[in-house]
Amino acid sequence: MRFDEAYSGNVFIGMNSTYEESQAVIYGMPMDFTVSFRPGSRFGPARIREVSLGLEEYSPYLDRHLEEVRFFDAGDIPLPFGNAQRSIDMIEEFVDKLLADGKFPLGLGGEHLVSWPIFKALKKKYDDLVVIHIDAHADLREHYEGEPLSHSTPIRKACELLGPENVYSFGIRSGMREEFQYARDSGMYMAKFKVAEPLKLVLPQLVGKNVYVTIDIDVLDPSAAPGTGTAEAGGITSKELLHAIHLIADTNMNIVGGDIVEVAPAYDHSEQTQIVASKFVREILLGWVK
Q1: 3-288: CATH homologous superfamily?
Q2: What DSSP character marks residue 7?
Q3: Which is nearest to 248 in space by CA: 152, 131, 140?
Q4: Quick one: pLDDT at residue 182?
Q5: Which of 60, 175, 183, 199 could cross-link with 138 by S-S, CB 3.0 to 4.6 Å?
Q6: Is 32 annotated among the ligand-binding residues?
Q7: Residue 96 annotated as part of some ligand binding site
Q8: What is the spatial distance between Cα 227 and Cα 66, in angstroms, rounded to a whole number?
Q9: Please, which residues bridge with residue 2 across strands?
Q10: DSSP state of 228
Q11: How far is Cα 30 from Cα 106, in angstroms, rounded to an integer?
Q12: Global pTM value
C-alpha cells in the first residue's frame, strides 16, 4: 500500500501530517468474518471517521488540541472479504511496517480478532509487551465451535503469546465458566464489571513497561453504545471509559499503540456509538501519543 494514496474518502478530523512526518497513524481493519452473533463491524472504521467531523479538535479534559500531535489517517487496509487468515496476515504486515517506521499504531475495528495480529507484530519489537484489555467479554476461548480464528479468542491467544501474567483485563462481565476459571488459574489479571477503579490500582505496577491497549466498545452499557455486534447489559458509562483513557495517559508507561474495535453502525441509528468512539480516538491521540 502506498501511504500517500491509501485513502481517498473521509479522514479523521484534524489530520495534519503526511505519513513520513507523522507520529501516529490511524488505520482501519474492516473485518467481521468470524463474529458469533451480529455482523457489521467492518463498517465501523469508516463511520467513526465520518462522525468525527462533528467533534471539536480541542480536548477540555487534556487541554490539548489535535494540531499538537502529528497524525496521518492511512485509511482501511483492503482486507479480502471472508478470508480471515489472509486478513490477519495482512494486518500483521501492515503493523510491522508502522513499527519499523517508528509510528504509533492506532487501529479501528472491525471485530476483536483483528487485535491478534497486532499483538504478534508488537511482540516482535517489544519482548516485554503488556496488554491492557478493556471489554465486556473475556475473549479467552480456545475456539468457537471448533474454529480457533474467532473474535472470542484473541485474549487467550495473547496470554499464550505473551504469558498470562502480562495480560490485564478490565470490565469483564460475560464469558464461559471455563474462561473465568482459566483467568483464575493462569495468573492473568481480570477485573470484573469495573474499569477505572481497578485500573488505578494496577497502573503503578506497569510504570516503565511497554503497553498496548485494546478497547472493545461493548464494554460500554448498551444504553451508551447499542451499535455493536454482541451487546451486554450492565456495562460502564462513556464517562468512566473516558476517565480510564485519561488514567492511562497520566502514567509513565510506554504506550506503544492501541485500538478500538467492534463498532457496528447499523445497530445504532442515533449514531451515539460511533460518536463516542470517535471522541475516544481524539482523547487517545492527545493523551497517549507522547
Answers
A1: Ureohydrolase domain (3.40.800.10)
A2: -
A3: 131
A4: 97
A5: 175
A6: no
A7: no
A8: 26
A9: none
A10: B
A11: 14
A12: 0.95
The gap from C-alpha 60 to its chain's centroid, in whole angstroms, comes to: 23
Q: Is 250 a known ligand-binding residue?
A: no
E strand or H helix that includes residue 264: none
Which grid coordinates are listed for 253? 508507561
Low-confidence ranges of the chain (pLDDT < 50): 6-8
Q: Are 288 and 104 in contact (CB under 8 A)?
A: yes
pLDDT for 152: 82
The three-point CA angle 54-57-62 to 5° equals: 125
Burial of 67 (0-12, 13-18, 19+ CB in 10 A): exposed
Is residue 107 within 8 A of residue 142, CB to CB? The reply is no
Confirm whether residue 216 is marked as ligand binding: yes
For residue 61, the model assigns a pLDDT of 97
Grid cell for residue 230: 454482541
DSSP codes of every residue in 20-79: TT-SEEEEEE---TT-SS---GGGHHHHHHHHGGGS-SEETTTTEEGGGS-EEEEEE--P
Nearest Cα residue to 29 out of 40, 44, 18: 44
Residues in the chain: 290
137 assigned ligand-binding residue: yes
How far is the C-alpha of 24 from the C-alpha of 82, rounded, in Å?
A: 29
- Rounded CA separation 246/242 (Å): 6
Alpha helices (H) along the chain: 44-51, 84-100, 115-125, 154-162, 177-186, 196-202, 238-249, 272-288
Q: Is 4 labeled as ligand-binding? A: no
* Structural contact between residues 139 and 166, judged by C-beta atoms closer than 8 angstroms: no
List, for residues 60-90, the tens digit of each pLDDT value: 999 999 999 999 999 999 999 989 999 999 9
Q: Are 17 and 71 in contact (CB under 8 A)?
A: yes
Retrieve residue 229's grid coordinates.
Answer: 455486534
Using CA atoms, how far apart are residues 196 and 194, in angstroms rounded to an integer?
6
Rounding to the nearest 10 degrees, give the CA dihedral for residues 129, 134, 135, 141.
20
Cβ neighbour number for residue 220 with a 10 Å cutoff: 29
